[in-house]
C-alpha cells in the first residue's frame, strides 16, 4: 500500500512487498497496519504543519520588515523633500544676495565710468584750450613777424 500526499514524497506501506503477510491481509490491512499508516500520516502531517508554520512565521517576519522598511522609506523620502526645499531656499537666498552685490558693483562701476568720462571731457577741453592758446600765440607771433617784415621793407 502506497500513500501519496499532493506535492510530497510517497509514503511507504507499513509492510514491504513480499513479506510474510498473506494476500488477503495485504488487500485488507490489519488493524495494526492501519494504525501504523495513520501514525505515519499523522507524523508527516505534523511535520508539514511545522514547515508551514515556520514558513508562515518567516513570511510574517518578512512582511513586518517590509512594512517597517516601507514606513522608513516614506520617512526618508519626506526628509529628502524637506532637505531639497531647504537647499533650494538657501540657494535662492544666496543668489539674491549675490545679485544685490552685483547690482551694487554695477552702480559703482557706472559711477566710476561717468567720473572717467567727465575727467576725459575735462582733459579734452583743457587740451582744446591749450591748442587754442597755442594757436593764438602762434598767430600773434606770425603777425608780429609779418608786421616787422613789413616795417623792415618799408624802412628800406
Walk me through the structure.
This protein has 156 residues and is an all-alpha fold. The protein has one domain (28-150). The protein is built from two helices and two strands, in the order ββαα. The chain has a two-stranded antiparallel sheet. The protein is rod-shaped. The model is unreliable at 1-9 and 14-25 (pLDDT under 50).
Compact description:
The protein has helices spanning 23-27, 31-155; strands spanning 3-4, 10-11. With 156 residues, the protein is mainly α.
Entry keywords:
coiled coil, 156 residues, 2 strands, two-stranded antiparallel ribbon, single chain, mainly alpha, disordered N terminus
Question: Secondary-structure blueprint of this entry?
Answer:
Elements (H helix, E strand, L loop, with lengths): L2 E2 L5 E2 L11 H5 L3 H125 L1
Antiparallel strand pairs: 1-2
Q: Quickly count the helices.
A: 2
The backbone outline, from C-alpha atoms, is rod-shaped
The total of beta strands comes to 2
Give the strand order of the largest sheet, numbering strands 1, 2, ... along the chain. Answer: 1-2
Radius of gyration: 58 Å
Stretches with pLDDT under 50, minimum 5 residues: 1-9, 14-25
Estimate the mean pLDDT confidence: 80
Secondary-structure element order, N to C: EEHH
Keywords: Coiled coil
Coiled coil: 66-112
